[in-house]
C-alpha cells in the first residue's frame, strides 16, 4: 500500500512531521526557548497536511476515503504545502542542531528524535490495518519490519503509510549535513548551501535523475532557505545570505508550478497556480521575520509543537480507516472533527507517554557508546 499523497507526482517529508519536527536534543530545546514560533509553525504545517488528507485527498482520488467534505475542500486542497513548510522548518532546525560541529551528537539527536515515535506509530498503524483494513489497505509482516527501519524506500519496500515519504527526504538532507560535519566544514555551510542551490538549478535545466534524487532538488529550495534563515538569525543578515534566501524563494515558486500541474492532472481539481505562490510566500516571509526581527512572542507553543511528529505519523491511514467504517452511517461533520480531536489526543499521549520516555532511554544508551566524531 502506498499513500504518497504529498508527493506522488514529483519526487516522496514530515513532521518533525518534522516531516516534519519537535526535538528532544539540548540544542533544539535551546532553539525552542528562543524561537517559540518554530513550534507554532510545526503545528500549522501538520494541521494543514491532516486537513488536506481528510477533507480532500482521500476522497478526491485513489479511493482511500468514501467521505467527501465539500465545505472545506476548495481551501484544504492546498494543504499539501504543509510538507514544504516542514522542510523550511527542518532547514532551520537541523543546521542549528549541527552547529555544535559534532557528527556523533548530531546522529544521536536525529536517531532519538525520529525513531521512538516512529516505531510506536508504525506499529499502531500496522495493527489498525490488520484489524480494520479494507481492500484498499493491506500490509504484510515483512513490510512492517522493513518499515521499522525507516529505510524502506531505499530498498524498494512500500510504506505502511504514505506520509513516510517525507522521512526519506529528511534522511537525505541529514546525510548531506552529516557529510559537512564529517569533513569538518559545517562552519562553511553558506558555501555548501550556495553550491547546492546552483546544482539544483543545473539539474533542473539538465536533469540527471539519480543526482536529482540524491540531492532532493525538488525540495532543496526549502531546506536551503530554512538553513539560510538560521544563518541570518544566528550570524546576522548579509547581502549574500539574503540573496541566497531570495533565490530559494523564487525557485520554490517555480517548482510549485510543476506541483500544481501534477495535482490538476491527478485530482481533476480546480487549482489556481497563484494560491500556492501566495501560501509559499507567506512561509518565506514568516521565516524572514523570525530570522531578522527575532520576535520573542509571549505564547509558549512547545506543547502543540510536540504534537506534530506523532500527529503527522498516525493521522492518515488510521483516519481513512475510521472514515471507511463510519461513513455514511455517521454525520460527516461529527466524523471529521471527532477524528481530528481524537488524533490530537492520541498524538499527545504518544508524545508524553511513549516518545519522551523512550527517547530519553535511547539517548542515554547511544550517548554512552562510541567515540566522539567532530
Walk me through the structure.
This protein has 374 residues and is an all-alpha fold. The chain has one domain (26-226, 252-367). The protein has helices at residues 26-34, 37-60, 73-76, 81-98, 103-132, 141-148, 165-182, 189-205, 209-214, 220-235, 239-267, 274-292, 302-326, 332-367. α11 packs antiparallel against α12 (274-292).
* Oligomeric state of the chains present here: single chain
Number of strands: 0
The N- to C-terminal Cα distance equals 40 Å
What's the alpha carbon Rg, rounded to whole Å?
20 Å
Question: In percent terms, what proportion of residues is strand?
Answer: under 5%
By secondary-structure content and strand pairing, the structural class works out as: mainly alpha
Helix count from the secondary structure assignment:
14
Concise summary:
This protein is mainly α.
Write the layout of secondary structure elements.
Layout: H1 26-34, H2 37-60, H3 73-76, H4 81-98, H5 103-132, H6 141-148, H7 165-182, H8 189-205, H9 209-214, H10 220-235, H11 239-267, H12 274-292, H13 302-326, H14 332-367
Search tags:
mainly alpha, 374 residues, 14 helices
